[in-house]
Amino acid sequence: MPVLSQILISRNTKQAGRFNCYVKIKGKTLKIGTIQPETKVNLYDRCGVILQSTHSNKTGEYTFDGVGKGETYTIIGFDNQKQFNAVIQDNVVPK
Predict the structure, then answer these.
(1) How far, in Å, CA of 37 to CA of 55, rounded?
(2) What is the spatial distance between Cα 31 and Cα 79, in angstroms, rounded to a whole number?
(3) How many CB atoms lie within 10 A of CB 68?
(4) What is the torsion angle, in degrees rounded to the nearest 10, for the CA atoms of residue 35, residue 50, residue 8 and residue 10?
(5) Does domain 2-92 have CATH number 2.60.40.10?
(6) By three-state DSSP, how is residue 21 classified?
(7) For the whole model, what pTM was predicted?
């Protein structure tokens, strides 16, 4: 099953959210410890509205740019071969 990891990478001075800046959420998709490229990954707000959708690159890495610092998100990764259920990482709060 894809495994998602959330890593804060950068900040900038744009205004957004209640903390007045945008950040990135970066992670990696793995399937039973092996890099899983081209995996669909979605970002949702706390109400379940899809904000962004992307696919991991050849090294399994994905990025969501321009997310509000301090906001709460849910990330869902989908198994391309449909051998496993989607993986949900909830209560993701970029810092």
Answers:
(1) 8
(2) 8
(3) 21
(4) 120
(5) yes
(6) coil
(7) 0.78
